[in-house]
Amino acid sequence: MPARPVSRPPLRADLLLLLVTLLAAAGWIFSKEALAGLPPLLFIGTRFLLAGALLAVFALPDLRRLTAHDLASAGAIGLLFSAALGFWILGLQHSHHLGESAFINSLGILLVPVMARLLFGDRPPRTTWIALPVALFGFALLSLNAGFRLEPGQWLMAAAALCFSLLINANSRAVKQIPALPLTAVQLGVVGLVLGLVSLLVEPWPNRVGDHTLAWLAASVLLASTLRFFLQIHAQGLTTPSHAAVILMLEAVWTALLAAAWYGETMSPLQLAGCSLIFLALLINRWYWVRKFVSRR
Asked: pLDDT tens, 56-79?
């Protein structure tokens, strides 16, 4: 019996994932603007608590079917998500260059197979070990741009990338037992509760939040969180995870372009070289899937 040909990922999935990367990139701008009027942990806690509540409306039937063990597993991963986003928002607050920060944060994708090897004994592809030194050299060039030292925004983004690599590994296993939509809703809710509580303990809250800040917060909740995650879950269900990852790598590129358009950011030669090497490392790490993606166009 002849083997069934592998179906081509639908164009609809590609377009939706492309939109997801644009929404994610826009979220960097929304968040940076909102931080002008809100403390970082209060902002990210409020953003994800509201986004989790909105996603829970769509996920309500599935949420009712979750067992106590499922809820505990999703909640535990939500704690890891809280750490990742805590580092990310603090890194964003200290960041002097959004494009650079986005490329540093994208190192999390590269670290996923490394963490899988360390934690679960998975064997990463050979391309991972080729890509890793390329990415580290790119990161070193970014530190050279600051006078051979890591600025707070850089190491906070690097810590966020490490946490995100652990989060992706945990989610890739949890989603085999728990549907993606309720899993995401629970995690976002946990992030909101945890970081909101931490904010209450360590941050001074403003007496009044201006309409301008509220507008950026609303854009972050509705567009960069709720709509983004909803579309990403739907699109990933239409294609393979590896195919989706090739498109999702574009987030850092769009962020750099949006930051250039919105803030007039430019990159020094060292920054451009460092970010280019990190993006090259991402392509090397996914080379097999990049070739398949290109060959199917």
From this structure: 999 999 999 999 999 999 999 999
